Amino acid sequence: MTPCPRPIRRLGYLHDLIAVRARHRRCRDAWAPHLAATRERVAAAAEAAPGRDLAVVLGAGLLLDVPLDVLAAAFRRVVLVDVCWLGETRRAVRRFGNVDLLDHDVTGLAAACQDTTSIPAVPRGSIPYLRDADLVCSLNCLSQLPLNPRLALESLPGVSADRLDRFSRAVVAAHVEALADAPGLALLVADTTAERVLKSTGDALSRDLLFGHPHPDGGDTWWWDIAPAPEEDRRYDLRHKVVAGLV
């Protein structure tokens, strides 16, 4: 029943948003330190921004990691950007007269990855109001940007895993490069590495979430306990390394 453009719904974005809400409810305590750390970095960036006119938040989603009270008080206008929204988020922002929701695909790939016979070229990252924003925040979405387009392309005949990895890496690079072009302050908070930690031995198996794109340098790092056992498997905890810093 949630309003959602057909290309976005077909690529699974609405399903994923609902799934994130459900996982957060199950793992609320485990997620709390990560979400608090993200909100703290956004609040610090808001204080350091060169102006007080406009803040843009990419990947605002369920607002779990967005200190909306802080941003609404600090800027004349706040624009929250994501591909779709649940009704609870729309209701939450109504009390702020200077906060707008914008449905927008920052990859520019949602339509191109449907009903296609080849892997499309990755366009330049599309960040609304980039030139006008005093602060742009990309929150915990960088590693997610390639996933839904990639899934839609996996069934194409003759497409190799290596080709899909290069495509995914290009999507990540396009977003980082777009953030780097921001004339105002740009904050990137991104999970970069996944680790499955076996409960019995403490051994960890690592996976790069950015498909070989260089991980951000500097900034703060912490671990996000995204799926503690038995969320995915009773045998292991899943955690993601998060990097937060200015681009």
What features would you describe in this structure?
Helix 4 links the parallel strand 1 (54-58) and strand 2. The chain has 247 residues and is of the alpha/beta class. It has seven helices and eight strands. The model has no long low-confidence stretch (mean pLDDT 96). The radius of gyration is 18 Å and the shape is globular. It is 33% helix and 24% strand. Strands 1, 2, 3, 4, 5, 6, 7 and 8 form an eight-stranded mixed sheet that branches.
In short, what is this structure?
This protein is α/β, with parallel strands linked by helices and 247 residues long. The chain has helices at 6-10, 13-26, 28-48, 68-74, 87-93, 147-153, 161-180; strands spanning 54-58, 77-82, 99-103, 135-139, 185-198, 204-208, 220-227, 236-246. 33% of the residues lie in helices and 24% in strands.
Task: Note the topology.
Layout lengths: L5 H5 L2 H14 L1 H21 L5 E5 L9 H7 L2 E6 L4 H7 L5 E5 L31 E5 L7 H7 L7 H20 L4 E14 L5 E5 L11 E8 L8 E11 L1
Helix count equals: 7
Structure classification: alpha/beta
Helix-strand pattern, N to C?
Answer: HHHEHEHEEHHEEEE
- Shape designation: globular
Major sheet description: 8 strands, mixed
What's the total count of β strands? Answer: 8
Unreliable segments of 5+ consecutive residues: none
Rg computed from alpha carbons, rounded to a whole number of angstroms: 18 Å
State the separation between the terminal residues, measured CA to CA: 38 Å
Report the mean per-residue pLDDT as an integer: 96
Helix content: 25-40%
Percentage of residues in strands = 15-25%
